[in-house]
Amino acid sequence: MNSWYTDVILPIPLAHTFTYELTSDQATLLKPGFRVAVPFGKNKIYTGLVYKVHRKMPVRYEAKPIDQVLDDGPVVTGEQLKHWEWIADYYMCSLGEVFRAAIPPALLLESETLVVRNDSFDGDESTLKDEDWLVYEALQYQSVLKVHEVASIIDRKHVLPVLKRLISQGVIKVQEEVFEQYKPKLVRYVKLKEAYNSDEALQALLETLHRAHKQKKVVLTLFQLLAGAEEQVALKTLEEKSGVSPSVVKSLLDKGILEDYYLKEDRIGFDGGTTESSKQLNPYQEQALEEIKDHFRSKDVVLLHGVTASGKTEVYVKLIEDALQRNEQVLYLLPEIALTTQLISRLRMYFGEQVAVYHSRYNANERVEVWQHILDAGEKAQVVLGARSAMLLPFSRLGLIIVDEEHESSFKQFDPAPRYHARDAAIVLGMMHGAKVLLGSATPALESYYNAKTGKYGLVEITRRHGNVLMPDIELVDIKEKHRKKRMKGHFSDRLLEEIEACLEEQGQVILFQNRRGFAPILECQTCGHSPQCPNCDVSLTFHRYKNQLRCHYCGYHIAMQHSCMACGSSEVDTKGFGTEQIEEELRALFPQVKTGRMDSDTTRGKHGHEKIINKFEEREIDILVGTQMVTKGLDFANVRLVGVLQADSLLNYPDFRAHERTYQLLQQVAGRAGRSKERGKVIIQTFDPLHQVLQQASMNRYEDMVSDQLNERRQFRYPPFYRLIKIVFRGRDYNRVNEAGEWFSRALRSGFKGSSVEVLGPEFPPVARIRNQYHKHLIVKIPLSGNLRASKTMLKKIGKSYEAIANFRNVRLIFNVDNY
Ligand code: ADP
Ligand code: ZN
Ligand code: ZN
User: What domains appear along the chain, each with residue ranges and CATH number?
Assistant: First the structure.
């Protein structure tokens, strides 16, 4: 009789699934989506995912049995697997890589090495070295030791040599054990002991407590709570409500009057249901909503192009209400950085506990809980708010997907694989579920707008801000001229300073944007021109004054600030360029009485770092907020009247075919933070090139003009949306090998694509060619929309296979990045 087998997806970059043997019991139980622990390689145990159950014996290797079944039901759905297959295929990566990206780490069991004694050891223990003997002895009393326990027994950190010696002498064995990391959080509850449940018993109890006022109060409070809405009373609640110290409750527990018990609690639970009903839409929003619904009758995807503060979120809310009415799940995707408590609490106001948040900054256990709720399709996770990886969750009744700020480049995963674009993959997800997809932005990506204009997507526009507030007045200030006329104080023009003063006078708040963090990007010797470089990357170190350090923004390398040149010893070193830190410092000198704050990746570390600064700004504990891109993302502050951009030029000069589009988007977004509620906002953009086309367009809100200019260029120079780009990256420590690898691949590609419409660019070293001591070299493949994408990818994979067989290139990683952003 034939045996049963299962193909298992392992969370590793190998392209295939792996086949294991099953007992017939396992074969009846297991279905696609179950997790199993399986042996792999030497002494390794992995958590794998059942992909298929079948009876076909593998031909190339002998199937091992699985170690353990980890679930009693699938944790991944069939629809999910289908979507993951699409991602792996389209973005040219393995199913295992998608699996790893999708599943909360706590569900990917950890494998930890255990040391056990080898019972068949028959050597002479007295010949063992001292350290070895200590381990041997410990194992006579304990059957297993973890590696870190061994370390403390022999009091040294590096135990592997010792273990290796013990293994080779047959004293110990090493065993891998898989254990479950996820532990639901337990909450301690209290109740009255059974014996006091009758009225008489309770009366008698209160009598005996008549001298112990506080204890009596606790018992009475417990009674009140149970008579009210509560079914269970948590220990903590009881302490709070009766206003006594924990010791009072403890003595009641000790006396056996109260008893305690534990219940599972959701970590991300919050108390309170909905507190408000959704807002009455204004006529523009109302019309947009009707148009969206109308498009949805014939189209699966609609783009909502609504200017900043037009009230897009309120329109989404109405659509979410409709979906919930139909008992459908809703996925609301946002760029990570825009996923703030501002928005979360706004949605929770309307939808209460039905909103779940899925966020990489949440810890492992919290993520498992959200996963489970969505899998159960329960009440709790009807609306899932999350960053890009939220679209990999186990939805089963998905009806609506909203991709807010759809133009954001952070929707594209950069490293590691799967290098997917969450907006695009969400559209595919929508198709698989028959769900509608709404893309929203004040400055849509060129690709999306083009798709809308050509009729592939529905297009709906809102051109007015809510409350008919005018769009902000944007003024370009020529700082070249200001410098010449000596009208600059530090990095501030007289115009910007006048506006800041006026704004503060009227009790308004100010946002200042500068694209770099730190104090100054470059430290330069005035004598020999040397500037300190990162030893691991091809970049200059950035000066951070607060820490008095020079830091690398790519790898984190840092050294103390140097006051003399490291090359020639001259003490004439000077800084060039400026970052947020320097702006904040200048501000303090210019406006000593004003409260300033800074929001960049240096000040927002940790789970709530971002929120804290936002809250402070909302509470008006900060008058002027200086920040990087972070201050531009979807924030809604009623009191900001002025936005200043200290220098727009560095954005325009970025070496990327999207630089102009991005500059437009960024300036419009940051400008959009001004004057959102009542009065018209003011925006000052400082630049060396005020006549630049894109700056002109951004200052006059001429989105359409920007789009048509950029589309012309893209068509002419063969870029998206007219061509698809696949970037091929070669990465390794050896410069020459990386170089050769790029050349070899480029020759193979050129001959492979000869005579076709596919174009190959490069190989080229990017501007920062070395990061963390790894060299990078790029090739770009351009495939016309009319070209055959599938055939091109097949060709790439085929060449990739030959490449991987070349011994010389073994240490040069080959990476495909499809639709590179
Ligand atoms: P957008 O997402 O388009 O930038 P928001 O949805 O954040 O705009 O709306 C901007 C501000 O206007 C928010 O403070 C929001 O509460 C308010 N707002 C929008 N629509 C309405 C409405 N119909 N009634 C009352 N307030 C609204
Ligand atoms: Zn020097
Ligand atoms: Zn570095």
Answer: 4-107 (3.40.1440.60), 111-179 (1.10.10), 186-264 (1.10.10), 283-466 (3.40.50.300), 473-519+578-712 (3.40.50.300), 723-818 (3.30.70.600)
